[in-house]
Amino acid sequence: xxxxxxxxxxxxxxxxxxxxxxxxxxxxxxxxxxxxxxxxxxxxxxxxxxxxxxxxxxxxxxxxxxxxxxxxxxxxxxxxxxxxxxxxxxxxxxxxxxxxxxxxxxxxxxxxxxxxxxxxxxxxxxxxxxxxxxxxxxxxxxxxxxxxxxxxxxxxxxxxxxxxxxxxxxxxxxxxxxxxxxxxxxxxxxxxxxxxxxxxxxxxxxxxxxx
Amino acid sequence: xxxxxxxxxxxxxxxxxxxxxxxxxxxxxxxxxxxxxxxxxxxxxxxxxxxxxxxxxxxxxxxxxxxxxxxxxxxxxxxxxxxxxxxxxxxxxxxxxxxxxxxxxxxxxxxxxxxxxxxxxxxxxxxxxxxxxxxxxxxxxxxxxxxxxxxxxxxxxxxxxxxxxxxxxxxxxxxxxxxxxxxxxxxxxxxxxxxxxxxxxxxxxxxxxxxxxxxxxxxxxxxxxxxxxxxxxxxxxxxxxxxxxxxxxxxxxxxxxxxxxxxxxxxxxxxxxxxxxxxxxxxxxxxxxxxxxxxxxxxxxxxxxxxxxxxxxxxxxxxxxxxxxxxxxxxxxxxxxxxxxxxxxxxxxxxxxxxxxxxxxxxxxxxxxxxxxxxxxxxxxxxxxxxxxxxxxxxxxxxxxxxxxxxxxxxxxxxxxxxxxxxxxxxxxxxxxxxxxxxxxxxxxxxxxxxxxxxxxxxxxxxxxxxxxxxxxxxxxxxxxxxxxxxxxxxxxxxxxxxxxxxxxxxxxxxxxxxxxxxxxxxxxxxxxxxxxxxxxxxxxxxxxxxxxxxxxxxxxxxxxxxxxxxxxxxxxxxxxxxxxxxxxxxxxxxxxxxxxxxxxxxxxxxxxxxxxxxxxxxxxxxxxxxxxxxxxxxxxxxxxxxxxxxxxxxxxxxxxxxxxxxxxxxxxxxxxxxxxxxxxxxxxxxxxxxxxxxx
Amino acid sequence: xxxxxxxxxxxxxxxxxxxxxxxxxxxxxxxxxxxxxxxxxxxxxxxxxxxxxxxxxxxxxxxxxxxxxxxxxxxxxxxxxxxxxxxxxxxxxxxxxxxxxxxxxxxxxxxxxxxxxxxxxxxxxxxxxxxx
Lengths: 211, 696, 132
Known about the structure:
heterotrimer, A: mainly alpha, Four Helix Bundle (Hemerythrin (Met), subunit A), 0% strand, B: mainly alpha, Cytochrome C Oxidase, Chain A, two-stranded antiparallel sheet, 1% strand, disordered N terminus, disordered C terminus
């Protein structure tokens, strides 16, 4: 049951997206939902900061059992994974752009691509973890292993939730519930997705690249 | 998007127009009466009342736990409970009072008052607000179920690892503690997001931030503290749970782990937490004292900025809880210094309260008594706090009853007295009944005397070396008399609480229709008591701080106040007609989603199948929430039931809260950590689209 | 007045309000976004390269990696998350979280002597000595 959609525009123009119709008045001029997402992302910094710090703290400690994680890294593989996640941010932003133009088909394609790239990232993580486990680096092996898996696991869980959100958006789009006027919904999902990417940017450097 | 069925249009024999109906399962509740309406309410006022009633119930339970402690310690070598039980009781006492009493009680005030004080109709995300409440109560019940399931947590409210790992604890108690606090943590985090957006975005026209009432300001600072502090304890609780349930190594000293990790994470949360516990109480007395001194708050901007300063600086002092734990002299010196500095903004507040009282025409109502008592009692607690900041002195004080005295003075003498001030002050607003003043004074006197009798001697006991967290103490230490006095004091407090309960029950006889019995200053008093469900018939336009006061009074050339004759209530008797106001309907999804969390919790402790069930409920609940129609066509739209005309789908200036989504909003399925089911679609057309659905 | 007209009238009225919510301002085109993504890819390649050039880079390695990380972070936040074009309030909220997290956790790590020469404080040092 779609409400009035914004007028259609050609794909190549850079256009001002139509303001959501019947937007409600707020004291800051910002939408409640978007403000809420940014507020939430501020709190998530504290969450991931604690997990990263715990990992860093224990990384330097003597390894009393099993291998150290540094011995097991496959940097080329993880680099490709990181690249994939980074590109998923691009496809996310293209999905938003398409939604704002009222191009539902493109929007769905980009959303699905983002979900696919995210899934490849998660699959890569799963592969990486199973390899580590096979090489004797399990969750309970040592200090480093527990903190490594909890940090990357939390991140992976966030990506997975993001994939569910993206797929839900695709379904909404198919039902006609994502016209240009509702592009903000995609924007807000995008903020979450980019945040998850940005956390990985930090993790990749701090956990994998810096020894 | 509503899940509506296309049905063939039938010709009804009555000739009435057939109305499309949504699928029964997704029909959104409409009733605002009856006990079930409390389960589905999304009205911030009702949610606030539920928070308050639950918190008071937990206060009674936490108080009973305190009485057991004091009965045990009234004499040396007490035999009332054994050591294991004692550990459980004092752990639950502390956990209850912090997480299940003061936090939800302040949430009650924040939920009830913030929308009213800023001239809004509800919070930004009403269903999320309900979800927060259900998470809190279910989390609290989950925690307490530990008593019936093998034993309550016994590691202290601070749960230092590795002491709280499975090898040192005999039951699942600490699991219930960790998971229960995760659940209540979700409530607080989600509530913080909700109230921050509300205060920033839903202020009435003309209400700049520096015209916001001081209570709203202090509550807002506390919400920011919650926002950033809860994730830290979330991580700590996960690490503890992973160690206990999945053999992780975070606190496993044999694997080289560092116990200080727990302490840092806990106190990085824990110190901002104490400001979360006290700032809103400061806000309450900053409202009460001006009203009963008949003077505006002295130095409002200073009060605002000192509150913000306390919020900031509170992040820099946490390791003063760890002075004796081996963090080393550099850390100790740094945190000792920062802790001394934080006394400054608090001192500013004390002086401003005194400045407000000075030269005022004081009326000592019960609310005023409690408010003034906060100023003096918190000062005593603050002074002992300053002595802790001096780290060499703290080395003697730490882990003794001197610390117990300090934090009870600031949390009971501070937060709880502020809460009682607020209860007496806002009771008529919320319930349309006045608490009896004479009984209130008896309550106050007993509570003040009992409180000081209970806790002042503890300063002495602490300096004489009596350690905390011990089930018994030996004879001949010279501690007997003070302990006995403290125990008597505790029972006097209990008596005073019974007086309070009696006062509440008796208030049935003291109904008042007066919207403004105290001649107060802020907008919640400009509407009827209790307020209508939509708070204000007409959204106010604000031109002053203390807007309501300025509408009532004007100053003549000599600076004297005279009451204006053209004062108009913003709702209730003598007010304007409620224009057509569109409110979101009640909903049962917040409760459903909340139920998923303890289900998962029990699953973690007992059986992973339960986790699966819980996860299914969670996911299903979130989708149900996102997909539910904003309003049941033909329903009452959340108004008090007047047979008014069908609402026109116009967007008024009235800030209709945007929580209802007839289109599915983007939703985030909750992991065990934060769940932010954004129950709102983006901006538009709650009215327009539902109008489309509903109109015949 | 039909419902659609009423809604449209409401919408039109709101379009003129000063504080209408919405993304009514310019932002990068799709082509710019691809360009930004390319820059991010190049930086990632540089990061991975420096990892392999560890010995050549010596003590600059870690600062270089951190700088690249910050640049990528800021780029995604500024352009993909639209912070450069949106209200300051969003930036302030996000930066508050980052600054607070960095401050608090760096102080904690410092308290653990994480940044000192061997980075292994007391108790762990004892364990290490034991296992030698």
